[in-house]
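Practice record 12: protein with FO1.
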Amino acid sequence: MSNETGPVLALSGGVGGAKLALGLYRILPPDTLTIVANTGDDFEHLGLSISPDLDTLLYTLSGNDNLELGWGRRGETWTFMAALEALGGETWFRLGDGDLATHIERTRRRKAGESLSAISHDFRRRLGIAARLLPMSDDPVRTRLHTAPTPPSPASGGGLGGGAGGWLDFQDYFVRLRCEPVIDRLEFAGAADVRPHREFLAALADPQLRAIVICPSNPFISIDPILAVPGVRAALRACNAPVIAVSPIIGGKAVKGPTAKMMAELGLPVDAAAVAHHYRDFLDLYIADEEDAAAVAGLDMPVVLTRTLMQSLADREALARAVLAAAERVRK
Ligand code: FO1
């Protein structure tokens, strides 16, 4: 039987995922949408508690997102960064003047003992967002990436041994080193000890749930941390609602960011099918771009082909509609 009114749960990271989250937000009754954000990218920087994916979702859903950068605030000014630079401060992680207010206020409230989810709830209300936005957990998880050992080479000082490789914190890898290091594995430090946010688990167990949407974020750095939270993957497998993922790969390439480079370095084929395999133990249906029809032809799960590139608001809404229509097809 169809379920066109039940709640929808979306798992999302930053940029790519936030676009589909906005599409869902615009087509659904807002009080039926819960978005769970990855917090593995969070870090302490300049004494501030920074939650990039929560902030990208806050700004995107409230129409405050910076469309050029893909992160931070619209119409941003950079007086603080320029002044910090002049003082010799760390400016590799760019903090706009408006964005800074978010980090300063979140840091103040965290220090006062408020949870990340309580702060996110209040921020999204103040920004006029009617959907629910949750961190995957109120406890800290930190994505780290292991760099492959660099082979000895004349370039590394006369044939001496190359670098031994080592662990990088996420923002060091992603921003400071611009995703250049070659990685061979990731870890989500702390994941084994955290609890999924109670409203996240409750949503997963809701018998009225209409669909669970894995947004087209980077599977490894944005979705896997959410799946690493104890109980999440098992709940997705056990869930009665259809679990649908949208491919972050289009035409064998990532729309933005290091997804394709990471897949190659992790030894995975850089194609849409590899992402479906990555989620296969809980996925009911995969949505891939029409360009990747051949790549997903042999998949042993239902596939829907559609245009997945989201450039306009209409694209975001159209993809959201395609996801929900697909959910009706695989309803259990
Ligand atoms: N990404 C960059 O490539 N360079 C930056 O300077 C940068 C600053 C920044 C500030 C606040 C914020 O919420 C996000 C920011 N990002 C920046 C993006 C961030 O690294 C990514 O959004 C996520 O961590 C990965 O999706």
